[in-house]
Request: fold
Amino acid sequence: MVEVEKASPNLVVTDYGAKFRLANLRLLRVLKGNAGRPLDQLGVALDMEIWLEGARVVHNSAFDRLNPGQKLLLFSGRSLNIDEPCEAVAATDSAIQTIETSIGTAKP
Reply:
């Protein structure tokens, strides 16, 4: 679980057209595994292209949660950036409880 410390209001556009905001996150707790992803100047994509019977652009909801103080559940992905919509979700009480129950770390 991480907390957004700050996020740039400006978009960074790569040579291939991807749009990112850079954010600094603070590690609050590791729920499972290792915290191997860098959390400073982490790129968070605005959207991504997926291939399902042709190309479609899907908005990355993590992009909308880059507000200081926002807590996120951060999952590992294929890259160092958060560029897939399911890599970071709001760390609501029910989401945390669901994850803890699933991995067997829930407190009684």
Summary: The radius of gyration is 15 Å. Residues 2-103 form one domain.
